[in-house]
Amino acid sequence: KSNDKLVSTSKFLSLVLRHRPEVIGSKLDPEGWLCIDELIAQANAHGKAITLELLHEVVATNDKRRFALSEDGLRIRASQGHSVSGVELNLEETTPPEVLYHGTVAAFLDSIRATGLRKRSRHHVHLSPDEETATKVGSRRGKPIILRVAAETMHRDGHQFCLSANGVWLVDAVPPTYLTFP
Ligand code: HQG
């Protein structure tokens, strides 16, 4: 498959499995899963040509491992990044490392200094395990700025951390006191 085809299919799956399953007339289950047979049938019925082979290739080769299959291989879900309502991934709470990172851009800094990191349209604030990953995340919006998050202290103070299946740390919010600005 051409890389373009894999990327466009990944974007389409992100749309359906994170944000708007209704574009193919589907609904995710409470933990975000969708039957693969239904997804393929509904996508094709709505003018998006997808085969089982293409879907499996996207899952296997995706740069950020954005999608996960259920153990029986019959269902698929996005591992993080949701904005759709009524979905809760039910990830286990996990102790974070001492420091995590968040990549953003200068335009947001005043607001972040005032209110801390907020989840905005998504279900969680997303944190990266290393500066390199955070740099990539920030670069989506312009010149990246990397914030350090005192994750271990935050966790000790009672904030819950979860680790998504593809290595993204998820929290409800990061109050300003746990942030270090460059
Ligand atoms: C910013 C991608 C003003 C925040 C990535 C970010 C990630 C604030 C933006 C995943 C703020 C939200 C998520 C505040 C946060 N005031 N701005 N108080 N608090 N922000 O896209 O972390 O390719 O929802 O800095 O790799 O950029 O989609 O979050 O810039 O894992 O798989 O508000 O998306 O993955 O933007 O990215 P997003 P994000 P995928």
UniProtKB/TrEMBL annotation:
<dbReference type="InterPro" id="IPR022928">
    <property type="entry name" value="RNA_2'-PTrans_KptA"/>
</dbReference>
<keyword id="KW-0808">Transferase</keyword>
<comment type="function">
    <text>Removes the 2'-phosphate from RNA via an intermediate in which the phosphate is ADP-ribosylated by NAD followed by a presumed transesterification to release the RNA and generate ADP-ribose 1''-2''-cyclic phosphate (APPR&gt;P). May function as an ADP-ribosylase.</text>
</comment>
<keyword id="KW-0520">NAD</keyword>
<dbReference type="InterPro" id="IPR042080">
    <property type="entry name" value="RNA_2'-PTrans_N"/>
</dbReference>
<dbReference type="GO" id="GO:0003950">
    <property type="term" value="F:NAD+ poly-ADP-ribosyltransferase activity"/>
</dbReference>
<dbReference type="InterPro" id="IPR002745">
    <property type="entry name" value="Ptrans_KptA/Tpt1"/>
</dbReference>
<protein>
    <recommendedName>
        <fullName>Probable RNA 2'-phosphotransferase</fullName>
        <ecNumber>2.7.1.-</ecNumber>
    </recommendedName>
</protein>
<dbReference type="GO" id="GO:0000215">
    <property type="term" value="F:tRNA 2'-phosphotransferase activity"/>
</dbReference>
<dbReference type="InterPro" id="IPR042081">
    <property type="entry name" value="RNA_2'-PTrans_C"/>
</dbReference>
<comment type="similarity">
    <text>Belongs to the KptA/TPT1 family.</text>
</comment>
<dbReference type="Pfam" id="PF01885">
    <property type="entry name" value="PTS_2-RNA"/>
</dbReference>
<dbReference type="GO" id="GO:0006388">
    <property type="term" value="P:tRNA splicing, via endonucleolytic cleavage and ligation"/>
</dbReference>
<feature type="region of interest" description="Disordered">
    <location>
        <begin position="120"/>
        <end position="139"/>
    </location>
</feature>
